[in-house]
Amino acid sequence: MKALHVELLETCRGYLAEDGMQGLSDVCQLLKSEAPRYDWVGFYWMNTPQKELFLGPFAGAPTDHVRIPFGVGICGQVAVSGATLRVDDVAQSENYLACSIETRSELVLPITANGELVGQLDIDSHTLNAFTDDDVHFCELLCALVASVWEPQTPA
Ligand code: SME
Fold first, then answer.
1. pTM exceeds 0.90, yes or no
2. In what order do the strands lie in the sheet with 52-59?
């Protein structure tokens, strides 16, 4: 893994060890400011009874998508599949919710705690093809860290 990603992961580990789920805002801010091409970083949580995602901590421009029905958009697809989805060019995606007209590519990863899909990490970039395999690996490790401090979240 890239040295920057190792360093970022260690800083995130510290935030989460110190503050648990409260540390996630710092995680979002850190990634947005330090990881190249990460222009919006946020977490969505599952509301399974309502079959929708709701927005948690994020860094970047405010989004209209504070609730997303399962199956709708990139995030909604990951809520159904439970699998990472990397979209190199959002303009080519037929099931996409635009958060910002500047977004060109997107990476969404599932967060699984105690064997259950509980949420996801969503990263938007203003750059086409922004996310490498190394980004995916780094984000998977970050999602595992988040899962280790996970506590149930309630929609606002
Ligand atoms: N683009 C996402 C919606 C969330 S915003 O990017 C913050 C999607 O298609 O699900």
1. yes
2. 67-69, 52-59, 40-47, 116-125, 105-113, 85-87
| Substitution site in 96, 102, 131 for ligand 1 pocket (most atoms within 8 Å of beta carbon) | 96
**What are the CA-CA distances from residue 107 to residues 114, 120, 124 (Å)?**
23, 10, 7
User: Of all protein residues, whose CA lies closest to atom 5 belonging to ligand 1?
Assistant: 99
The span from the CA of 26 to the CA of 46, in Å, is 21
Averaged pLDDT in 10-residue chunks for the chain of 156 residues: 97 98 98 98 97 98 97 98 98 94 97 96 98 98 98 91
111 three-state secondary structure: strand
Using CB atoms within 10 Å of the CB of residue 6, give its burial: 0 to 12 exposed, 13 to 18 middle, 19+ buried: exposed
Alpha helices in 20-57 (DSSP H): 24-34
**Interatomic CA distance for residues 52 and 45, integer angstroms:** 9
**CA 111 to ligand 1 centroid distance, Å:** 16
